[in-house]
Amino acid sequence: MSLVRLLIRRGDAVFCLPREDSGKLDLPTRATGGGDIDGSEAVAALAKAVTGSMVGPVFFGAVRNIVPAPAEGYGWPTPRAHFGIWRVDAAPAVDGRWITVTRSDSPLRDRHWYPLIEAA
Fold this sequence. Notes:
The protein is α+β, with helices and mostly antiparallel strands. It contains two helices and eight strands, in the order E-E-E-E-E-H-E-E-E-H.
């Protein structure tokens, strides 16, 4: 697992924070460390940082990027990189925004993980 995202849902909305790389709103995110093969350490730390709680995240799904010939500057493992999503049933303890995911004009529809949310 290369990256983990935290899904906190309230009805039709998900909790989002600005991404460090672009400032665009997205699910809370953290890169994994070298020894954290399944992302469980990173997502536990992310959940504690976002919710202030020790409630354990539950694996929700993953997105796999397949990039046989990466462009210069591509920062993820090749030819495959996995990005996991974990759900947590705790309220956020940090400032962020609730973004509706069910509307056709949701700004989150272009995210790689969106089909997982849409199918749930």
